[in-house]
Amino acid sequence: MCRSSLQSNVISDSVKCYSKIHDYHFILVRDSDYIACNHKDKFFRRHCITAQILPKYDAVMFLDADIGVVNPKRKIEEFLSDEIDVVLYYRFYNWEIAAGSYIVKNTPYALEFLKEWADYESKLPKSFHGTDNGAIHLLLAEKIFTSSDVELEMCRKVYNISKWYDDLFTYEACIKNMFGSGTDFGKIRIMKKGTGWTRDCWLTSCQWHPETDFMLHGWKSGQLKETPVNKTRPNQMSRIQWYNPFLGPMDLLRCNPENTTWSYNLNLLGSKFEITNSLRKYEEEIAMMQAKSYARIVNLLEPNKNTTEKPK
């Protein structure tokens, strides 16, 4: 497991303990140790670093520094397939492909993919491009579809003129429309919303359930808040705060394959039905937002055109 940067002990220790339980090699990465990766943008640089580390292992799960483990009984192998070399996932709260966590196998294809992603820094448009998160969408589309694809070029035009988040999200909706409901594209898998290994903690006020959750995202050390004394409801909360699901600090000396019982704050251990139902309702809202965002393409590319004009 490859992790970028350093966060609070709660977050880091959950991943360290989990790694010891399953005999995974945990690596806390500092980009200053990898001088060969001289990308200016730290977000692109991290994928170069993963490519430097990958040849030493069968596979690497990259985790951003604000992702923690809540369910140590789940295994990374659940997300590996013989025919797939790169595993990504869609974020839950919108329609973008996550850049902060992925799984890559030690294959020439995956290594080349990481290098292409890192080097996309030099191909960014002079627009509001979203760094590596924006770039991954166009990179994937270019690898999966032909460069002469009309729809791909339309998405590229939106990306090139993006001025703010609304435009960036429209570009991502354009790419998502190309992918449709598919998940597997050759050696690349893009897991559907809610089926990956992590989701944002704030989506359910940090409530979780062992049958639905493995890791949670958004655990930034400076945003940790005191857990409510009463049980929370699985509804959306502020995106810039989170609650600690554990009752106390982890004793890393006790982390081993025979000890997968962690001490949880039961106020955050929710009902599977209520959590699933809440997420489902939010997913329906996001689907409508995605459709509206995609519909902005005409106004972005042809702002002076009369949209009420009937096609000839």
Describe it for me?
The protein is an alpha/beta fold. It has 2 domains: 2-195, Spore Coat Polysaccharide Biosynthesis Protein SpsA, Chain A (Alpha-Beta Complex); 198-289, no CATH class. 34% of the residues lie in helices and 12% in strands. The longest helix is centred in the C-terminal third of the chain and has 23 residues, at 272-294. 36% of the residues are buried. The model has no long low-confidence stretch (mean pLDDT 94). Pfam families: DUF273. This is Nucleotide-diphospho-sugar transferase domain-containing protein. It comes from Caenorhabditis remanei.
Features:
312 residues, alpha/beta, Spore Coat Polysaccharide Biosynthesis Protein SpsA, Chain A, 2 domains, three-stranded mixed sheet, 34% helix, globular, Nucleotide-diphospho-sugar transferase domain-containing protein, DUF273, Nucleotide-diphossugar_trans
CATH topology annotation of the largest domain:
Spore Coat Polysaccharide Biosynthesis Protein SpsA, Chain A
Task: Give the total of beta strands.
Answer: 12
What is the SS-derived class?
Answer: alpha/beta
Q: How many domains make up the 3D coordinates?
A: 2
Shape: globular
Largest sheet, strands/sense/barrel: 7 strands, mixed
Write out the strand line-up for the largest beta sheet, numbering strands in chain order: 2-1-3-6-5-8-7
How many helices? The count is 8
- Give me the CATH architecture of the largest domain, please: Alpha-Beta Complex
Structural Rg: 20 Å
The H/E string reads: EHEHEEEEHHHHEEEEEEHH
Q: Which residue ranges are poorly predicted, with pLDDT under 50 across at least 5 consecutive positions?
A: none
Mean pLDDT: 94
The helix content is 25-40%
Percent in strands: 5-15%
Taking the alpha carbons of the first and last residues, their distance comes to: 56 Å
Pfam families: DUF273 (PF03314)
Protein name: Nucleotide-diphospho-sugar transferase domain-containing protein
Organism: Caenorhabditis remanei (Caenorhabditis vulgaris)
InterPro entries: DUF273, Nucleotide-diphossugar_trans
